[in-house]
Amino acid sequence: MRGSLLSARRFSLSIVVLAALAPWLLPSLGCSGTLEGKGDRDGSASTKDGGGKPVEDSSVGLDGSLGKACFNRDDCDEGQLCLGGICQPNPCLTENPCGDDDRCDAACVALVDPCAGVDCPEDNTCVDGECIAGCLPVTCRGVNCPDGEYCDRSSGQCAALSPCEAECGAGNACHYECIPPNPCDVVSCDESQFCVGGECLDNPCFGITCNAGSFCVNGVCTETCNCDPDCPAGKACVVGECKCIPTCKADAACGEDNGCGGKCFGSCEEDGFSCNPKNNKCECAPQCEGKACGDPDGCGGKCKPSCGAGKVCDVDKAACVCAPSCPGAGSVTCGQDIVNTCPDESCSGKGTKCPGGQKCENNTCVCNPSCPGAGSVTCGAAIQNTCPGENCNGTGTKCPGGQQCSNGMCVCKPSCPSAGSVTCGEAIQNTCQGANCPGSGTKCPGGQTCNNGACCTPSCPPDLACGQSVSNGCGGTCNGSKCDQSGYECKNKECVCKPVCLPGAKCGDSDGCGGECVGSCSTGFTCAEDKDDKGDYECVAKICDGGCPCGKTCSLGECVPIVCGGGKPVCGCGVCCPAGQSCVGGACVPDIQ
Q: What's residue 548's pLDDT?
């Protein structure tokens, strides 16, 4: 089984770039290509859920049972994730550290640099401990993080580890990921498209395969190792640009020059000191493990450990004391003192809690005056206050259907039906006796019109020429519309050429009358009238004046936020990495199996 799983050595690098790089480019750029790698079974190079390297058909799980080998979550049963190349129980089903709105996920992350000590041949890059063809950025190269942290490949910075229970192999650990809601989670796009902000956009690189070490940008294969002129000493060609490569080694000293104007994270010579990953400086590391509240921390301060529920560490008293807390006034009975949770502490003010319909006034619960709406009280009846002794203004206006309140009495509400609902010539009757309606009815059978109180059938000559007008015999007019010349129509009593733009017509096609059609254009372009030649239409790029800021892309002439599917963060300034790839130094690179 292992031989068949590891037989394929090529996988596809498909990078989706979504940034308005220049006004003449499409509002979205697609990237894809081919890089050399190891251990890919089907060309997908997918490591969803932190799948990791493939293993034999079965492996030993955390509880000693055998687990099934996998490449992604689709290989595993329901309730399992592919972690470390083994189908294991989904940690999110037993513990969920995420909020109600976020989705819990888990992945295996590297605790040490897997490329430490790996030398790759020219025009190759070490990614996850494997040499692959291409000159790609690797953000976590030479980064060593302190205990409890790992290097986030999307930023190249040390981040806090949120540990979960799973077997990830030596040098790796299971890490919880909280993924925020994404409009693309409920969108299904064609394989030739990708989703941005809930909208499916065409991928111009769909179906394009590039040579090893290159990838597609906007339908064109781009060499990652092509830098002209060659890069000077101390720099390397990365995705076609000369970049400074940090020289930090695994045994580097904290604060050592990284060769690119920065400092290395590393070890500190002085006992009790550790390297602060935020500034790469040796700083005194407080030693408070197993020490009591107020004990010296070894750095000139005092230890402040957790004291349990309801207590805090008071370093001045060197003891855990009650944590003062004052409940809200609305949770304490009206007029009663607000009592602190700690006996020796006090709270200001008094409670304001009262039963429904009452309010706290001068530390006493009293009726809360309220006047119901006039429309809920019978017409003419006085509006009663909910509190005795309190008054309300006015009287009610509530009446049965078809009636209205007038001078304290319910009376018929006058209403006149429409003329079109009353027979032609008949008087329109009001719904209330004694009330009148103006006019008479106009209702006639189909094909007839009401003329002088009688139904009449109008008649017009069938071949009346355009521009001619005659009586229709019922008080109306017949207007001619016939044009003898083919391709002409009657407009404003004149025969004029009738433009024809069939469905599917291209922008600028002739309309047969000396004009041009407003037709279709290629993806990313729109049909617009020539400013210098009115009536002429041409395809122009949909652009955003001034370009779009980082993190947004130009779509249909507007800058919209880039939102990656599956809860993935935007890579660099505007990249959404597809399944099986991760953000490394602002570019998507394949996960190595």
A: 67
Peptide bond into 461 cis (omega under 30): no
Tell me the pLDDT band of 45, cut-offs 50, 70 and 90. Answer: very low
pLDDT-based confidence at residue 65 (cuts at 50, 70, 90): very low
Write out the two tokens for 408: 């304290």
pTM of the model: 0.42
- Tell me the C-alpha distance between 3 and 65, whole Å: 23
- Average of per-residue pLDDT across 425-435: 89
Residues 6+ apart with CB under 8 A from 122: none
d(CA 580, CA 43): 10
Helix (H) or strand (E) holding 4: helix 2-5
Amino acid at 497: C
User: By C-alpha distance, which of 57, 56, 58, 83 is closest to 72?
Assistant: 83
Does residue 66 fall inside a structural domain? yes
pLDDT: is 43 or 429 the higher one?
Answer: 429
**DSSP reduced 3-state for 3:** helix
Q: State the burial class of residue 147 (Cβ atoms within 10 Å of its Cβ: 0-12, 13-18, 19+).
A: exposed
Q: Do 559 and 27 meet the contact criterion of CB atoms below 8 Å apart?
A: no
- Cβ-based neighbours of 571, under 8 Å, separated by 6 or more: 154, 564, 577, 583, 586, 587, 588
Per-residue b or e along 449-458, where b marks 16 or more CB atoms closer than 10 Å to that residue's CB: bbbeeebbeb
pLDDT at position 218, please?
A: 67
Residue 142: inside a domain: yes
| pLDDT bucket at 377, cuts 50 / 70 / 90 | very high
Burial of 488 (0-12, 13-18, 19+ CB in 10 A): middle
What tens digit of pLDDT does each residue of 522-569 get? 766 788 888 888 888 888 777 766 666 666 766 656 677 776 655 566
**Strand ranges (DSSP E) for 399-446?**
403-406, 409-412, 427-429, 436-440
Phi/psi of residue 312, nearest 5 degrees = -135, 160
Count of domains forming the chain: 1
Structure confidence at residue 61 (pLDDT): 44
Residue with tokens 């920065």: 262
Q: 434 in a domain, yes or no?
A: no
The pLDDT value recorded for residue 15 is: 34
Indicate if the alpha-carbon torsion angle 419, 420, 426, 432 is positive or negative: negative
Using alpha carbons, select from 140, 120, 144 the residue that is nearest to residue 130. Answer: 120
List the beta bridge partners of residue 488.
497
Domain extent for 225 = 2-245+565-590
**pLDDT band at residue 581 using 50, 70 and 90 as cut-offs:** low
Domain assignment present for residue 523? The answer is no
In the three-class reduction of DSSP (H, G, I as helix; E, B as strand; rest coil), residue 304 is classed as: coil
Q: What would you measure as the largest C-alpha separation in the chain, in angstroms?
A: 112
Distance (Å, whole) CA 584 – CA 569: 12
- 3-state SS, residue 64: coil
**How many Å apart are CA 312 and CA 575, to the nearest integer?**
45
Q: Which amino acid is at 20?
A: A
- What pLDDT is recorded for position 547? 64
